[in-house]
Amino acid sequence: QVQLVESGGGWVQAGGSLRLSCAASGGTFSNYDMGWFREAPGKEREFVASIFWSGRLTTYADSVKGRFTLSRDNAKNTMYLQMNSLKPEDTAVYYCGARKDTAARYDYWGQGTQVTVSS
User: SS3 of 65, please?
Assistant: First the structure.
């Protein structure tokens, strides 16, 4: 069973950048498709981006397309989310998730990392 730990969140002004990391342990990282989700106060958790186990295919929510870049390093058991041109509406707790394949649900989650973007 894989354990996930997010890091890299913080406070930034609008237009700034942050890079989130999701470190995995306890499983074979390359066996999992990975994703980022976020949850803003009073809102449901929403999809941000996902990446195949091989890193060869990524998918983004329309709201972040062109601003966020998802990548993974299977040798380091880590996934990264580079967030540029941040907007106040990106403020949320960001969670990374893992699933066995694209047909499965995300069964494994980290504890989340807070991202706050001020205007």
Answer: coil
